Amino acid sequence: MTEILTPKLVSVIAEGYAPARLKADMLSGLTVAIVALPLSMAIAIASGVTPDRGLYTAIVGGFLVSALGGSRFQVGGPAGAFIVLVAATVSRHGVEGLLLATLLSGVMLALAGYLRLGKYIKLIPYPVTVGFTAGIAVIIFASQIGELFGLRLEGGEPGPILEKLAALWEARPTFNPAALGVAGLTVAVILLLRRFRPAWPNLLIGVAAASLATALLALPADTIGSRFGGIPRGLPVPSLPSFSPELVLAVLPDAVAFTLLGAIESLLSAVVADGMTGRRHRSSMELIAQGAANIGSALFGGICVTGTIARTATNVRSGATSPISGMLHSAFLLAFMLIAAPLASYIPLAALAGVLAVVSFNMVERPAIAALVRSSRGDAVILAVTFLLVVFRDLTEGIVVGFLIGAVLFIDRMGKAVNIREENVPRAVRAIEDASEDSGLPERPLVADDPDTVIYRISGVFFFGAAASVGAVLDRIADQRRNFVLDCSEVPFLDSTAASIVEGLARKAERSGVRIFIAGLRPDMRRLLEAHDIHAPRVTFAATTEEAMAAIAAA
């Protein structure tokens, strides 16, 4: 328990932290900070808040995720997956409501970690994660269309995607070619650098090139300075968000949604890091760290924090060796704010929209979608339903419904995997005869000649999903023989529904004068059956089928 709730930073320090590792972590931390700088501001703006709040999130939340987390390589900050939820919360409850929801989410995440619930959160089916990620990508891109084309919408941009697209179409007369040119330049630079200079910080260079072009050519495109007045040089004084019982109840559903998505996103990111490095993260400690990071972010005016796959993967590829890399990434971001905050005023909003357009395109896991569609009709249904609900209804609803469909399909598949078959009685009894000859015991009469003895073997998990099919077979054959042997040696687990089926079989056999033998049960399964009043003389338990057949032969 102690190790599970120990931050990886403690383990790294205990191993011995050499200067060479610090140098590697400094380089990787700087690389991630360069990636995170424009991305954090872009995500904040798309979420309906000012760009400085995205930087507060990356600095404070990112530092706590790395310092307290259960992964050596996890990097935290604002995530594109939260844009939809954060924007909706801001529109309903304002920034103060968002900060309170983030704080409550942090408390919930920390509690989930202390209760070690991380192992259950990771049970979300893969088609659900692929579907909701693709759905979020579509919503993020749709939210940036206005900035990409420089459209001006009277009365703000609607939330639902169909209404949003209709409003954008109505605003087409306000199209600004300069904004589209700036966004196109940003995307082109990012893609070209990714293709020919993959080691270069393509996001930052793309935004810098667009900003330089906008300033030199005096293009009529909105910038951070013209829209928000720039960003401050440093962090604000921490303070508690506005609090009242009414506001807590109002933002509680948003906090629950933040908690669910944050847990899924962060643990998925940690799993990706494990796959890239061969390490294993501590999921419970990771959730505690995410909780502390969200609480810290809310106190400093930031938005939701989670472990991010893109920044974590960049951290690993850049040669990080420990959580200190993620902590240094936050320190570098703070240094950028202190030194270069005035330059952020020149960044065009269309350039940041171009960054998010690239991010949303990369979020769609096209090979995974193709594989799921090809592999199984059920997985394709889960994927499609999750995607459509996320895009057209609600993110949380998409995850919950996708999970439920996945659970039902899994139950159906497991139920079909259970097999019940009749065993060859002569062969089973011949084994008894041979065993008695080898042991020097007198031969017993062969029960193989007795048509009143039958053996049925169940293989697979005997649970409520298979109870109907197995129960139908047992009910059909139980009253046809005088001796009935039920071999459960290949049953790894049975539940109360299965025990109820066996209890009904025993009750019917008792009325018909049929002797029931149950062989091969594990001790825990036998205790479950006994709790359902299945014991001698109603049934006879045997360690093996051979032992049951010997008891029949001796009778």
UniProtKB/TrEMBL annotation:
Domain STAS: 443-552
Signal peptide extent: none
Highest taxon of source: Bacteria
Any Pfam family matching the protein: STAS
PROSITE patterns: STAS (PS50801)
Transmembrane parts of this sequence: 26-46, 58-86, 98-117, 124-145, 175-193, 200-219, 255-275, 287-310, 330-359, 380-411, 454-474
Official protein name in the record: SulP family inorganic anion transporter
